[in-house]
């Protein structure tokens, strides 16, 4: 078992004692870093960057060279899975991801099959293995995937959406068709995450970015049930070490207890949920991850530190907290403001443990 020199992140996810509260950031390798922008320019396009294990490794390590972060996260995209299903992923500058062949016809949906992660997504597994080697057991590596429902949103809408009209019409009119997409996606995500674990990922995270757009009943049926199926099928121990799993539904604060009950080790919170109240609601069932408003990083460094301390104080003493943003970091964030956040989290949480 090759335990990372800094395993604070893994211990916090398992609610074991830690010397400080670990921190990593969603989208920590991204356009706010000039070095990332330079590597992306060399790659030619975003997907060319994702598909090149050497360059994916390079950008994964860039934020770790700049900041004292407690974990690395694989550089990839949640839409690699539907791309491997043959839907034709492409990116439009200023508009984001789109699919050439969105799922609209019944025959297209019935013909949908899960990709083999060792074949169609081999480049991701190669990147995971190469990143693990490059990290040299300094910090843990996080693997990830989109949730079945979030992937289905892009697959059916054909890209980003303001109201999810197409997928929601299918949900109400033809739930059988949407369930078929979600079943295929759940199988694909389970296999994809397990392949990442076998390639070297030491924790995995499910991003349910659009689950919060669902009604109360629909969330349980069309999002949570499929994430539970994935968690149930995950490899939970590899190489003699426990592999923790994090589930994050943006806008999912009202379902906190239900999410905590599906078997995951940690629940991610967006910035709209009070982390102290969340801790009381889940007790010692799961760890919590979050949950600074990403826009707070545009404030002055002393104000950022103030916000970070407020979240740490709201969580309270003891382990079981991984500090993060409530969603991905903005591309316009001043890089030096991240330094202020990381330092504030480490310094204040160390002081908390000395009290």
3D structure, described in words:
- This protein is an alpha/beta fold and about 350 residues long.
- It has a single domain (about 10-355), classed as TIM Barrel.
- It has 15 helices and eleven strands.
- It has a seven-stranded parallel β-sheet with strand order 1-4-5-8-9-10-11. A two-stranded antiparallel ribbon has the order 2-3. The protein has a two-stranded antiparallel sheet with strand order 6-7.
- α4 (about 55-65) packs parallel to α7 and α14 packs parallel to α15 (about 335-355).
- It is globular.
- The protein starts with 7 loop residues before the first helix and ends with a helix.
- The mean pLDDT is about 95.
Key structural traits:
alpha/beta; two-stranded antiparallel sheet; seven-stranded parallel sheet; 355 residues; globular
* Helix content, binned percent: 40-55%
Report the top-level CATH class. Answer: Alpha Beta
* CATH fold assignment: TIM Barrel
Largest sheet: 7 strands, parallel
SSE class? alpha/beta
Q: Helix segment count?
A: 15
Strand order of the largest sheet: 1-4-5-8-9-10-11
What is the strand tally? Answer: 11
Mean pLDDT score, rounded?
Answer: 96
**Count of spatially separate domains:** 1
The CATH architecture would be: Alpha-Beta Barrel
Outline: globular
Low-confidence segments, ≥5 residues, pLDDT <50?
A: none
Work out the radius of gyration: 19 Å
Give the distance, in angstroms, between the N- and C-terminal Cα atoms.
34 Å
